[in-house]
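FAQ

Q: What does a record look like?
A: Structure on top, sequence underneath. For example:
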């Protein structure tokens, strides 16, 4: 038998095998990069866990207290039954009529606006028609805890239908304080005032939106407290209870809990998005479904079909490779944010923490912009968020310090020469200015009143200058005390200053549309 030499392989077949080999190598390389990206993210998460960080949503869900201790169900039921009032009819408390000086609202025989000559009949009727609900809310807030039963496993799709009602309740409690003081019902006014501070103390899920609403409630409670302090008939026991409630309110713990939950929800959002293109479509990162099949769209609108195919291709690349450095970048930013906040609260200094965070962020290696699509959507402006907490904390410290000053006057007949004289009878220590870590500034004025202030967000002490900076003259509150060169605890405006302000409102009414009706 003759031996036959093998026939040479045809060129197309040989080329096809080479291409197949290259394709397999490319797939293998992509798979290896996918695994490496996953491993890098897993290693970073393990590093955070080793430091004691909690990355799962379940780790941050508050435990429901016993029913008899939980204010939430009864409070929210009462809040849901409140009647509405148009926002333009809300009565301003502690409204500044000139820099550093506010109108004592409850002392006014009439409450004019630029649209209406007197809001007293309207707001009094509104408070009275909600009087039963107010009693239910104040009774509920006497309980030690307030935890709403929410399904946190929904992540960023978590619904918070009660949040707006909480804010409405805080506003109503503040209005009830001035209505009751105006009517001489001081005990009832104190009950509502204490409830408004307890709402700030009790309320606030570990979610950023809830914490931000909590800060609004704090501002409303502060305004009501300022109005209350203009009444000289309180006992020391009442003022002590009010001061202790303000001091026992831990805004920092709630904020830290919300930061942890936000990070956990962020990681969960990445997990959801890797397996669900519609999540990315909802954020506007890739085109969403059009209601017709891809092949129908290819025939009817090729350009749209191409965009849809390109979007899916991008999503696939993101889900398999880019999402892992994207998530790690989100986690790294959150970690700097959290550690900076812990440093801020430990040193009681925003300016110190801001410098530290700036240095830490400079050390981070940001992935290329195209790799940060989801992190840029779900990570808030972290640095600016700290300032919101700082503002709320300054308000809290100034408020309980002012109460201590009024307690001193109640006993001694005058305000103290220095804050140090309040220690230890009224304060355990002189409160610090959360902005720069120094003691709050204080001066006893020649007229016997006091000036108490923080340096504000420019970290510069202007000697207690309340002149507003950067507030438009057309603003509804052109003299906002948290927009001043320093943040100065307002003093009561004189009768002449209030009369001048009311005259301005009367002049505006003459050229305004007919008055508002409820």
């Amino acid at each position: 038998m003759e031996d036959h030499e093998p026939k040479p392989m045809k060129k197309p077949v040989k080329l096809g095998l080479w291409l197949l080999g290259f394709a397999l190598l490319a797939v293998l390389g992509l798979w290896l990069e996918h695994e490496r990206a996953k491993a890098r993210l897993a290693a970073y998460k393990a590093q955070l866990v080793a430091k004691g960080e909690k990355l799962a949503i379940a780790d941050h869900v508050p435990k429901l207290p016993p029913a008899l201790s939980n204010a939430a169900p009864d409070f929210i039921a009462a809040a849901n039954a409140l009647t509405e009032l148009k926002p333009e009819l809300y009565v301003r408390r502690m409204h500044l009529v000139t820099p550093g000086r506010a109108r004592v609202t409850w002392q006014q025989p009439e409450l004019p606006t630029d649209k209406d000559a007197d809001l007293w009949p309207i707001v009094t009727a509104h408070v009275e028609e909600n009087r039963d609900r107010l009693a239910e809310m104040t009774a509920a807030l006497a309980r030690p805890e307030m935890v709403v039963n929410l399904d946190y496993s929904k992540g960023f799709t978590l619904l918070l239908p009660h949040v707006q009602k909480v804010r409405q309740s805080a506003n109503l409690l503040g209005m009830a304080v001035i209505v009751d003081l105006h009517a001489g019902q001081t005990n009832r006014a104190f009950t509502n005032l204490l409830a408004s501070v307890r709402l700030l103390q009790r309320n606030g899920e570990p979610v950023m939106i809830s914490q931000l609403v909590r800060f609004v409630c704090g501002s409303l409670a502060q305004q009501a407290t300022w109005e209350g302090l203009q009444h000289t008939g309180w006992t020391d026991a009442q003022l002590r209870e009010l001061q202790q409630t303000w001091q026992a309110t831990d805004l920092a713990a709630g904020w830290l809990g919300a930061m942890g939950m936000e990070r956990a929800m962020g990681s969960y959002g990445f997990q959801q998005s890797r397996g669900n293109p519609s999540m990315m479509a909802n954020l506007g990162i890739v085109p969403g479904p059009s209601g017709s099949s891809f092949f129908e769209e290819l025939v009817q609108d090729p350009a749209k079909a191409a965009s849809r195919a390109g979007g899916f291709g991008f999503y696939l690349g993101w889900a398999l490779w880019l999402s892992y450095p994207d998530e790690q970048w989100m986690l790294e930013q959150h970690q700097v944010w959290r550690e900076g906040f812990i440093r801020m609260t430990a040193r009681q200094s925003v300016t110190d923490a801001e410098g530290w965070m700036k240095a830490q962020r400079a050390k981070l290696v940001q992935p290329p912009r195209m790799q940060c699509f989801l992190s840029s959507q779900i990570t808030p402006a972290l640095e600016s968020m700290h300032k919101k907490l700082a503002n709320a904390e300054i308000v809290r410290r100034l408020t309980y310090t002012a109460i201590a000053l009024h307690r001193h006057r109640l006993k001694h007949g005058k305000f103290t020469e220095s804050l140090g004289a309040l220690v230890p009878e009224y304060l355990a220590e002189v409160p610090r200015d959360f902005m720069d870590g120094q003691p709050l500034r204080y001066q006893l004025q020649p007229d016997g009143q006091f000036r108490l202030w923080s340096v504000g967000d420019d970290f510069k002490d202007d000697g207690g200058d309340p002149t507003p900076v950067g507030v438009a003259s057309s603003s509804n509150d052109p003299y906002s005390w948290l927009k001043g060169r320093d943040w100065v605890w307002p003093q009561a405006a004189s009768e002449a200053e209030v009369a001048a302000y009311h005259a301005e409102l009367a002049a505006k009414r003459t050229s305004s549309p007919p008055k508002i009706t409820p």
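Q: Is there anything notable about this one?
A: The mean pLDDT is 88.
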